[in-house]
Amino acid sequence: MPTAFEHAKAEAHRLGLTEDAALFYSLVPTEIVQAIAEGRIDPQAMAREELANRGLSQQGRWVGFRAAEQDLEHSR
């Protein structure tokens, strides 16, 4: 059975990400990871909001803050 690190490394490769990007959960506080695992936090919703906070569309392209907020509203 692969370790969590081996699994993350394989997923990174499959998705075309760096290993560091795939291992970001190792930096997240345990309470947050636990809440995600229990379904109390929606990581997809958090990611959509973070993209909008950066002025990015849901596809990760710069669109500016106002357009990103509108994109976020349409994704809800």
Q: What letter string, H or E per element, gives the SSE order?
A: HHHHH
Q: Indicate the overall shape.
A: globular
Largest sheet: none
Q: What percent of residues are in strands?
A: under 5%
Secondary-structure content class: mainly alpha
Report helical residue fraction.
55-70%
**Uncertain residue ranges:** none
Radius of gyration: 15 Å
End-to-end separation in angstroms reads: 38 Å
Number of domains: 2
Total beta strand runs: 0
Tell me about this structure:
By secondary structure, the chain is mainly α. It has two domains: 1-41, no CATH class; 42-76, no CATH class. The protein is 61% helix and 0% strand. The chain contains five helices and no strands. The protein has helices spanning 4-15, 19-22, 30-37, 43-53, 65-75. Helix 4 (43-53) runs antiparallel to helix 5 (65-75). It is globular. The mean pLDDT is 90.
Strand-helix topology:
Elements lengths: L3 H12 L3 H4 L7 H8 L5 H11 L11 H11 L1
